[in-house]
Design a protein that fits this description.
Elements: E1 2-6, H1 10-18, E2 24-26, H2 29-35, H3 42-51, E3 56-60, H4 66-79, E4 83-88, H5 91-102, E5 107-112, H6 116-123, E6 128-131, H7 133-138, H8 143-154, E7 160-163, H9 169-178, E8 182-185, H10 187-193, H11 197-214
Helix pairs in contact: 4-5, 6-8, 8-9
The protein binds erythose-4-phosphate.
Length: 215
């Protein structure tokens, strides 16, 4: 399973990207807003990420109709061949995703809330779908169960699940056991993934032993 960072805040991203453990960065208008990044500043953010060696950068279209989503998607892809275009799973979005996929542009269909949308994203030729696991559960659906169904629907296809809207390291563990291809997590969950209190305690023991052995 690959790990991605769901974040646009350079100060939060830098130390996590420096670990080399994250395959890329996902963004959307909410993530940009939380990171204080205006739409006009997105190209600069993309280039900052690419310069730090980020393998994939996901940027979301903002247009409402299929023609303008396609045009916007092509502009985003023109920033770099490491840019993946994110498009919400609306009828217009799926229509645009199909056209972009036919033009060789990798697309992630996002804001997915139901297993049936795995079917429509598959028909659109999407490389990824992003189920909003936390939001599904918070809105009365079982997010993990929906993802399990998406996994079964996508078995054998070239469309993978990149699970999003994750609230804890436990969410990541459960999704890994489901066999999802990737998850994207905010900085707090990313840091939680890297921190195991019992490991920290064991290292403190090592350090005390080393100090004593050096005396
Ligand atoms: C998409 O990549 C994000 O995960 C999306 O904004 C949902 O995350 P949230 O539920 O934390 O807002």
């Amino acid at each position: 399973m690959r790990l991605y960072l769901d974040c646009a805040d350079r100060a939060e991203l830098a130390p996590l990207l420096d670990t080399g453990l994250f395959s890329g960065v996902t963004t959307n208008p909410l993530i940009l807003q939380r990171g204080g990044v205006r739409l006009a500043e997105v190209p600069a953010l993309v280039h900052w990420l690419l310069e730090r060696g980020t393998a994939e950068v996901f940027v979301q279209t903002t247009a409402a109709d299929a023609d303008r989503i396609v045009a916007e998607g092509r502009e985003l892809r023109a920033l770099s061949d490491r840019v993946v275009v994110k498009i919400p799973a609306t009828t217009a979005g799926l229509t645009a995703a199909r056209r972009l996929a036919d033009q060789g542009v990798p697309v992630l269909v996002t804001a997915v809330y139901h297993a049936l949308q795995a079917l429509t994203a598959l028909a659109a030729g999407a490389r990824w779908i992003a189920p909003y696991v936390g939001r599904m559960t918070e809105q009365g659906r079982d997010g993990h169960e929906q993802v399990a169904q998406m996994q079964r629907i996508l078995t054998g296809s070239s469309t993978g699940v990149l699970a999003a809207s994750l609230r804890s390291a436990e969410d990541v563990r459960r999704l890994a056991l489901l066999g999802v291809e990737a998850v994207t997590v905010g900085a707090p969950v990313a840091r939680a993934l890297l921190t195991e209190p019992l490991t920290e305690a064991a290292v403190a023991d090592f350090d005390r032993a080393v100090a004593q052995l050096r005396d």
